[in-house]
Amino acid sequence: MARALITMPKTAKRGEIVEIRTLIAHPMETGYRAGDDGQIVPRDLIRRFSCRYDGELVFSAELFPAVAANPYITFCTLATATGTLQFMWEGDRGFSQTENVVLTVT
Amino acid sequence: MNASVTRRTLLSAGAAIGTLLLSRPARAAEGDLPSAIKAFTNGAPVQRGRVKLDIAPLVENGNTVPITVHVTSPMSAADHVLAITVLSEKNPQRDVITCRLGPRAGRADVSARIRLATSQQLVAIVQMSDGSFWSDTVDVIVTLAACIETP
Amino acid sequence: MRRWWLALCMVASVGAASDTRRSGFDFMTPETQAIQRDDAQNPAMLWVQEGAAAWERKAGTAARACIDCHGAAPTSMKGVATRYPAFDAATRRPITLGQRINACVVDRQHAAALAPESQELLALESFVAMQSRGLPIAPPDDPRLAPFRERGEKLYRQRIGQLDLSCAQCHDERAGGKLAGAVIPQAHPTGYPIYRLEWQGLGSLQRRLRGCIAGVRAEPFPYGAVELTELELYLAQRATGMKIETPAVRP
């Protein structure tokens, strides 16, 4: 399980725009780099990131080797109703990680 | 017919693909910037404006470069941003990141940290719900670390 | 009005003139500074998070967690990083914070020592050192450290490597200048372990020192070498009073 850090308010008013900041530990090995032995270090990337708000996809991103290590992605979502935001990162070598955060909407 | 041949080729290559294979326009992985732009827009015209690509003009380390894309859009059901892509002129490949939004975003503001191999041009292209495309282009100077690292 | 303004300027300039030391933070671009300032963005916080979890995890045959002896880290570890390297009576030589943590792992948890520069050790070190964030570096006034510190200063001023350069030549004489496009900082250990953009990962002061030594084409001392600890000791004294920023971000 990679370490992940999600920064967002725990509560919001209905209709408010909520800023969500996500950070996850991952080397994002590009597959272009030669290691100390002179051999190319195999590509190992997070390929996809998504955020589902009570099951509905509200944001997604396709990541390429140009995304820096320990990917930091921020985006916004409208606070509609109290619910769970599910964040998912998927990538090479079967990498898959999910984090859930509850947003209370008043 | 074409799509299933491509899928079979990918699967037989043995790559471990955990993600869905969505149908989308073919991407120019290597190749030049105009081709990559054309691939994203499917040849549709791209206008300057409505999108701002924020990035420092001088970057002290190309390994970790913060960028922000702001799009002027009401983000309503009738008028919103569908997708944002960032393309690099001189990295080993053009694609940097592609984000998909929608009216539930509230605001089309996306940030990320990217890698830049060298001084170059960076382009952000936005696809709107009405089918129009908008872009912003920035020139970035990248200075690199002085010493080669040993582990 | 003018007299008041003049007096204020004189007071400010006297204060500034007395300490020309600047943290590496001050030499960074605003964008990189912004990454350090914000715990939500600072990649080092991923290691700190790991360290916080390790603090509470029972380990070794003693099945003991750090928290079992030390309690909550924000209280017990506050100020600790400001006093390292410190003198270790058991080995009769100075010991870095990372080495002290490892000594606890072995002696108190009865667990295998964590490899130097391992992710586990860096996580604990960054978590512990962060508890001193904002506090001034305060090397212990311990006479037993003096001979080691003197050797550290000697190494700092010694020309080494194929490039025949000393630390002092870049970091004392040419700080603020450029080395192949990169700004030369003053080399104060204010934020270690740091997330270095060049490493795309977290690393200790020893890693950075080894990198610099290799950079002047000298053979780097191995991790844990007393020479590196002596250098750390001198650097800490040189940075006395400067505020700890751990976990810092550096280019």
Brief write-up:
The complex is a heterotrimer of chains A (106), B (151) and C (251). By secondary structure, chain B is mainly beta.
SSE layout:
The complex is a heterotrimer of chains A (106), B (151) and C (251).
Chain A: E1 4-7, E2 11-12, E3 17-24, E4 46-53, E5 56-63, E6 72-78, E7 83-91, E8 95-105
Parallel strand pairs in A: 2-8
Antiparallel strand pairs in A: 1-3, 3-6, 4-5, 4-7, 7-8
Chain B: H1 2-12, H2 33-41, E1 46-48, E2 51-55, E3 58-59, E4 65-71, E5 81-88, E6 95-100, E7 108-114, E8 120-128, E9 133-142
Parallel strand pairs in B: 1-9, 3-9
Antiparallel strand pairs in B: 2-4, 4-7, 5-6, 5-8, 8-9
Chain C: H1 2-17, H2 30-37, H3 44-55, H4 66-70, H5 73-76, E1 86-88, E2 93-95, H6 97-107, H7 119-130, H8 146-157, H9 167-171, E3 178-179, E4 182-183, E5 194-196, E6 201-203, H10 205-215, H11 226-238, E7 249-250
Parallel strand pairs in C: 5-7
Antiparallel strand pairs in C: 1-2, 3-4, 5-6
Helix pairs in contact in C: 3-7, 6-7, 8-11
Overview of the molecule:
The complex is a heterotrimer of chains A (about 110), B (about 150) and C (about 250). With about 110 residues, chain A is an all-beta fold. Chain A is about 0% helix and about 55% strand. Chain A has no helices and 8 strands. Chain A has strands at about 5, 10, 15-25, 45-55, 55-65, 70-80, 85-90, 95-105. Chain A has a 5-stranded mixed sheet, with no helix packed on it. The model of chain A has no long low-confidence stretch (mean pLDDT about 95). By secondary structure, chain B is mainly beta. The radius of gyration of chain B is 17 Å and the shape is globular. Mean pLDDT of chain B is about 85; it is low at about 1-5 and about 10-30. The longest helix of chain C is centred in the N-terminal third of the chain and has 16 residues, at about 1-15. With about 250 residues, chain C is mainly alpha-helical. In chain C, helix 6 (about 95-105) packs across helix 7 (about 120-130). Chain C is built from 11 helices and 7 strands. In chain C, a hairpin with a 2-residue loop joins strand 3 (about 180) and strand 4. In chain C, about 45% of the residues lie in helices and about 5% in strands. In chain C, the strands form 3 sheets. Chain C has a 3-stranded mixed sheet. Chain C has a two-stranded antiparallel sheet with strand order 1-2. In chain C, strands 3-4 form a two-stranded antiparallel ribbon. Chains A and B meet through strand 3, strand 4, strand 5 and strand 6 of A and strand 6 and strand 7 of B. Strand 6 of chain A pairs antiparallel with strand 7 of chain B.
